[in-house]
Amino acid sequence: MSKKFDSKHNTLLHRKLRERNISLHKNLLEFVHLSVSGPVRDLNTANHQLLQSQVTLQEAATTLHTLHKSLTLLSSRLSDITSSAFLSNIKTHV
Questions:
Q1: Which superkingdom does the taxonomy of this entry point to (predicted)?
Q2: Counting C-beta atoms within 10 Å of the first and last residue's C-beta, which end of the chain has fewer, N or C?
Q3: 5-25, pLDDT tens digit by residue?
């Protein structure tokens, strides 16, 4: 031990108490570290998965928006084609 204790506090009992206190302190620190590090790791993992889900949802929303614009344009063009006089000039053989 690096600390010097006067003779009345340097008995075998005091040395054993100091050893046990040091061991208790070490065990408590380890317990707290393990109790906190696992949930922190779990929260970090959940946060990472949520961020990945958010990116996926944003990509899906962008794709759906593009699809909606394309379908609107297609619908407009199809309407133009079906309403024009061009189709009445086509003769079909039955």
A1: Eukaryota
A2: C
A3: 676 778 999 999 999 999 999
pTM (two decimals): 0.56
Residue whose entry in the numeric block shows the structure tokens 């133009």 = 80
Q: Give the span between the Cα atoms of 83 and 87, in whole angstroms.
A: 8
Please report where in the chains the tokens 């593009």 appear, as a residue. 66
Given a cut of 60, is residue 34 above it in pLDDT? yes
Is the Cβ–Cβ distance between 18 and 1 less than 8 Å? yes
16 vs 24: CA distance, rounded Å: 12
Nearest alpha-carbon partner for 75 in 86, 67, 64:
67
Length of the chain equals 94
